Amino acid sequence: MTRKSEQACWVGFDLGGTKMLAAVFDGRFRLIGTAKVKTKGQDGLRAVLSRVSATIRAALAEARVPAGRVAGIGVGFPGPVDPERGIILAAPNLGWRNVPLRRVLERRFRCRAIVANDVDAGTYAEYRFGAARGARSVLGVFPGTGIGGAFLYEGRLIRGRRVTCMEFGHVTVEPGGRRCGCGRRGCLEAVASRLAISAEAAAAVYRGEAPGLAREAGTDLADIKSGTLAKAIRAGDRVVERIVRDAAGRLGDAIGGAINLLAPDVVVLGGGLVEALPRLFLHEVRRAAERKAMAPFAGSFRVATARLGDLATALGAAALAADAADAGGRTAR
Amino acid sequence: MTRKSEQACWVGFDLGGTKMLAAVFDGRFRLIGTAKVKTKGQDGLRAVLSRVSATIRAALAEARVPAGRVAGIGVGFPGPVDPERGIILAAPNLGWRNVPLRRVLERRFRCRAIVANDVDAGTYAEYRFGAARGARSVLGVFPGTGIGGAFLYEGRLIRGRRVTCMEFGHVTVEPGGRRCGCGRRGCLEAVASRLAISAEAAAAVYRGEAPGLAREAGTDLADIKSGTLAKAIRAGDRVVERIVRDAAGRLGDAIGGAINLLAPDVVVLGGGLVEALPRLFLHEVRRAAERKAMAPFAGSFRVATARLGDLATALGAAALAADAADAGGRTAR
Description:
The structure is a homodimer.
Chain A: H1 4-7, E1 9-15, E2 19-25, E3 31-38, H2 45-63, E4 70-77, E5 81-82, E6 87-91, E7 96-99, H3 101-109, E8 112-117, H4 118-129, E9 137-143, E10 147-153, E11 156-157, H5 189-192, H6 194-206, H7 211-216, H8 226-234, H9 238-262, E12 266-269, H10 272-276, H11 278-292, E13 302-305, H12 312-326
Parallel strand pairs in A: 1-4, 4-8, 9-12, 12-13
Antiparallel strand pairs in A: 1-2, 2-3, 5-6, 6-7, 9-10, 10-11
């Protein structure tokens, strides 16, 4: 028996602040085409939306799939969205507010679309196809410029009524501490995000304590990326290693706190920084989380790194689009 | 049409550290009998279990219900339980470990039984019959000797694989701060539980700053109960009022942190301290939680006090027993 969904195709879209990626999947979620371009948010909303459509069409062309065979499009976006109405609520770096992305895509491609938070989508992908496959409950934590979180319980993503939730980067870890981008103090993001790490590492370069990183990047934050930090550590920059280990430990401590509340079976760590330094992150996060977890939870969870890499958000968004279609298209999970 | 469950009765049991309460409900969860006695944990496990059975029989006698009409028994217990196997995992104040309470009750009463955490049960009761009726998602917070928490999402209590979760009293609010009963430092419980408040209030009595409380209770912690604190505040003890308001604000701050993760639609505050001072707690918790909640969540939740009082745990446990019977008795929700 061939199910209709095996003939249909699904498009997953990762709409990031610097790049966008369209991926086409067959009915069994095998990748059959991709396209990737720069987002260029400075060109304004209309130009970006045109680029989204063009990138989807390019991926469909690569997959040799006519637009008519697309059963649904799922978009993952790095910011708060309203999954019910398919709206990007705010995109601080792009200056957008209340962008009805679902409606735009449904009109342009004449198929169903859903809009999800990117970490929700990535965690869902890891649950369906990756490191947390079939787990009863999953906490996803993706440190990047910020630190995104997602919680999935018995197959369902936990969400607010009109907005995605799990703002893991804004767990308070130092009351009255360092100022965070959100305007409050002492958020995890202010001490353990890639941006916070890069800022500390740049200061170390400036002080002459990180010769490896000085060769690779210098003191410009914009040049200190995940791969650069990994290279500097491999080149022997002890100070850089200590900075990253400290941040990973802070992350693990906050994860331990979440374990005391939610008792997930699996914690999935993802994002570029974890991909660049998987063993370091696994080690430090496990150690700190086990120390922080209360007795009933110690040993009750495993920590894993994400397996789906760059494709996770697009794949998860496509799978959520397929779920929404199965549920009659009323709502995304 | 009369459903079978309308003829059946359900027993809810609140097994507290100082008292136990059995309540009998008809098929529509109307109360038809109760019995309440002291727990007297110092008599040992066997004696307490006998007392549990006798108290259930006393409530059934009051309700004029023969044991054969009991369709199920639900027990709420103030500590970590394994809801799947129906086991009390630990009862620090009573010195118990791994008590197979479900099996004991199923043998004695020849009906299905379930064992739940008391705050899970109380929050479930408020969702089914009380202050959070029908809400999409509910955070329950019950400050008492400790501070219990529960989270309910689309009708399901969030739980760990082998143990209840939401250890809300052990959210870290002061890294490196006051020592908590759990052995770690800076837990919410160490600054905002009824016990922490009573300890601060006793010190205020000792310093001569709380004449009202001095008349009511003195400096013995065991005498400074929720009602006593409320009386002292009404009698004009400003220092006591400030201590309680500070604690309620700390509680609200931690609740705001949980809102940034879980975005509940309703926060239900319960327990004796909140019952004694509902307006004070509502005001301080709302204020602190709104301040702590990030922009997308501010205004997205309401804070309510529990409506079901002393009966909440028993009623919720009875309803969970009925759900488990509906689901084929395989597992409690």
